[in-house]
C-alpha cells in the first residue's frame, strides 16, 4: 500500500471504504437538476460549484458543526494528548488553526451527486424528483471513474456524505483517533505540518459532508472545492445570478486535463465520456426536452 492510500485509511476511513466499494462495483453517479441548468452544463462544458451556504437547507453546515463539536467535547482531549505526544504543542495548534480557518467553511464550494442504482435507469428516484429540478427536472447519469480518481488537477474532491446521529458521528471520530494512535510511528515520519493539514481537512470535510439521517435515501456525494485553502488554476470564479440571487460560483471545466503524473492529470471528464444518459423527469414537456438533449449531446460528440 502506498503512503497516500495509507493516509486516507488513517484519516478518512469511512470515505476510503465507500470509494473502494464504488470502484469495485463500477458505481455510477447521478446529478438531478433542472433541464435549464443541465443544458448549460453540456453546452458550456463546465460544472458550477456553489457556496455551501446556498444549499437547499443552510442548516446542513450547522448540523455538521454540531456533530464535530459533540465529538471534540467527548474525545478531543484524547486526540490532543496523542498529537502532543508525537509533536509537542500540535494539539493546541490544531484547535487554534481550525478556529482561524472558520472562514474556509464559509468559502466551501460544492456540487452534489447521488449514487445511481441500476433499477433507476428508466424512472430515476421519486424522492429526488420531488426535491430537485422543479417542473422540468432531468437526471444526468454519470460515469463515476473521474470522481474516484486520485487526481489533484482541479483541487476538487469527491466525498460521500455521512448520515449520522451525533453519537454515530462520534463513533466514527473515535475510529479515526484510534487509527492515529496506532500509526504514530508512521505519522511522525511524514512530519508535523502534514499531520496538522490532514487533520484540518478531516474537520472541514466532516462539517461539509454531514447530513441528518432523515436524508439518507439521497445517498449523496459532494465534490468540494476550497478556493481559499487550496486554489486551482483550472477552476475559475464568476459572479452569476441564480434564482434572483447574485453569488460567486466556481466553474470546473469538463475537459480532460493533461499532466506529467497521474496526480496532475484528469481524464474522463469530457461530456461523451462523462454523461452516460439523461433521464427526463416528470414534466409537461417530456418530448420537447428529450429532443433538446438529443441535439445537445450530438453536438457534444461521441453519441
How would you sum up this structure, described in words?
With 303 residues, this protein is α+β, with helices and mostly antiparallel strands. The chain has one domain. It is 48% helix and 21% strand. The chain is built from 13 helices and 11 strands. Strands 1, 2, 3, 4, 5, 8, 9, 10 and 11 form a 9-stranded antiparallel beta sheet that branches. Strands 6-7 form a two-stranded parallel sheet. Strand 9 and strand 10 form a beta hairpin. Helix 1 crosses helix 2, helix 4 runs parallel beside helix 9 and helix 5 crosses helix 11. The chain starts with a helix and ends with a helix. The mean pLDDT is 93.
Can you tag this structure with a few keywords?
303 residues, alpha+beta, two-stranded parallel sheet, 13 helices, 48% helix
SSE arrangement:
Layout: H1 3-11, H2 13-24, E1 28-34, H3 35-44, E2 46-51, H4 59-86, H5 90-100, H6 102-106, E3 109-116, H7 126-131, E4 137-143, H8 145-148, E5 156-160, E6 162-163, H9 166-182, H10 184-190, H11 192-208, E7 210-211, E8 220-225, E9 236-242, E10 245-253, H12 271-274, E11 275-280, H13 286-300
Parallel strand pairs: 6-7
Antiparallel strand pairs: 1-3, 1-4, 2-3, 2-10, 3-8, 4-11, 5-8, 9-10
Helix pairs in contact: 1-2, 3-13, 4-5, 4-9, 4-11, 5-11
Amino acid at each position: 500500500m502506498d503512503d497516500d492510500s495509507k493516509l486516507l485509511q488513517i484519516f478518512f476511513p469511512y470515505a476510503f471504504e465507500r470509494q473502494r466499494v464504488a470502484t469495485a462495483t463500477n458505481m455510477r453517479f447521478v446529478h438531478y437538476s433542472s433541464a435549464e441548468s443541465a443544458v448549460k452544463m453540456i453546452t458550456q462544458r463546465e460544472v458550477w460549484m456553489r457556496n455551501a451556504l446556498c444549499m437547499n437547507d443552510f442548516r446542513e453546515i450547522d448540523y455538521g458543526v454540531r456533530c464535530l463539536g459533540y465529538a471534540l467535547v467527548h474525545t478531543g482531549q484524547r486526540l490532543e494528548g496523542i498529537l502532543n505526544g508525537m509533536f509537542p504543542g500540535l494539539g493546541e495548534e490544531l484547535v487554534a488553526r481550525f478556529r482561524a480557518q472558520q472562514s474556509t467553511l464559509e468559502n466551501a464550494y460544492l456540487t452534489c451527486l447521488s449514487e445511481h442504482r441500476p433499477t433507476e435507469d428508466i424512472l430515476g428516484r421519486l424522492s429526488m424528483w420531488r426535491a430537485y429540478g422543479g417542473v422540468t427536472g432531468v437526471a444526468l447519469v454519470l460515469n463515476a471513474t473521474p470522481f474516484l480518481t486520485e487526481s489533484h488537477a482541479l483541487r476538487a474532491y469527491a466525498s460521500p456524505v455521512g448520515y449520522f446521529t451525533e453519537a454515530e458521528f462520534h463513533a466514527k471520530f473515535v475510529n479515526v483517533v484510534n487509527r492515529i494512535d496506532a500509526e504514530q510511528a508512521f505519522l511522525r515520519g511524514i512530519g508535523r505540518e502534514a499531520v496538522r493539514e490532514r487533520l484540518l481537512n478531516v474537520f472541514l470535510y466532516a462539517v461539509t459532508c454531514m447530513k441528518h439521517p432523515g436524508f439518507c435515501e439521497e445517498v449523496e456525494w459532494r465534490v468540494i472545492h476550497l478556493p481559499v485553502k487550496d486554489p486551482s488554476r483550472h477552476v475559475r470564479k464568476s459572479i452569476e445570478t441564480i434564482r434572483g440571487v447574485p453569488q460567486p460560483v466556481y466553474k470546473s471545466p469538463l475537459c480532460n486535463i493533461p499532466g506529467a503524473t497521474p496526480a496532475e492529470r484528469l481524464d474522463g471528464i469530457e461530456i461523451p465520456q462523462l454523461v452516460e444518459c439523461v433521464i427526463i423527469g416528470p414534466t409537461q414537456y417530456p418530448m420537447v426536452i428529450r429532443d433538446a438533449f438529443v441535439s445537445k449531446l450530438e453536438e457534444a460528440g461521441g453519441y
